[in-house]
Design goal:
Shape: globular
Number of strands: 6
Strand content: 5-15%
Radius of gyration: 17 Å
Order of helices and strands: EHHHHHEHEHEHEEH
């Protein structure tokens, strides 16, 4: 593989929460809001330990941290209602440069894949509410795969669906778990940290680059044409 050439990337694979949309901030605020009712304190800081996880791993984390009697179903119902209210009042914040990058990939006929640990419902709701252009060749969600990030399965599956070798694609991630998953799948990855800014030391040598926004990715690919 020769990075930054006209032969690469043959496809771009996107994470969603924190990468395409600033939804993790809404979830964090909701966890803070409902936490006192559940365990007597805000729970927003727990999001730093669960980013990139699917529901099963998130449930396990809360049971491991707060005990097997943690009322996860009650917690989940409460925070999801809170997030739904935020989405209605505030909309879903789109991350800087997303639509520009998607337009560039469409113009250059570079396939895009969405590979997220979020549920199918959450994923398609976000795509619809933000009016994100429908250019994704595949949308792979957390409830469609057998293992969650940092397991590499979702990126290995993405490459198989594309019919491409891992080194031919580019993964875009915002979380440590996501970068670990991409690295384990042997896919080049660029990290654009969101909530985990300042907490990337565990993966700082793994990405091809650390960037500030999706605009930087577009600029890089345009320069490489």
């Amino acid at each position: 593989m020769k990075p930054w050439s006209d032969l690469w990337p043959r496809a771009v694979i996107f994470d969603m929460d924190g990468l395409m949309y600033a939804t993790e901030q809404q979830i964090q605020r909701a966890w803070d809001e409902v936490g006192p009712e559940i365990v007597g304190k805000p729970l927003g800081n727990e999001i730093y330990h669960t980013m990139g996880m699917n529901r099963a791993l998130r449930v396990k984390y809360f049971y491991d941290t707060y005990g097997s009697d943690f009322p996860y179903e009650k917690f989940e119902k409460a925070y999801k209602a809170c997030v739904a209210d935020m989405k209605q009042r505030e909309g879903i914040p789109v991350k800087q440069g997303l639509f520009r990058l998607l337009a560039f990939l469409c113009e250059e006929r570079i396939p895009a894949v969405l590979a997220t640990g979020s549920s199918s419902f959450h994923t398609y709701e976000n795509l619809a509410l933000t009016r994100t252009p429908d250019i994704f060749q595949y949308v792979i969600c957390g409830d469609m795969v057998r293992a969650a990030k940092p397991d590499p399965f979702i990126y290995e599956l993405s490459c198989r669906k594309l019919g491409m070798r891992p080194e031919e694609v580019l993964v875009l991630e915002d979380s440590v778990n996501g970068v670990l998953a991409a690295h384990a799948a042997h896919t080049p990855v660029i990290m654009i940290p969101d909530l985990q800014k300042g907490q990337t030391s565990a993966v700082e040598d793994l990405p091809l680059a650390m960037m500030d926004s999706l605009d930087d990715v577009t600029d890089m690919l345009m320069d490489a044409r």
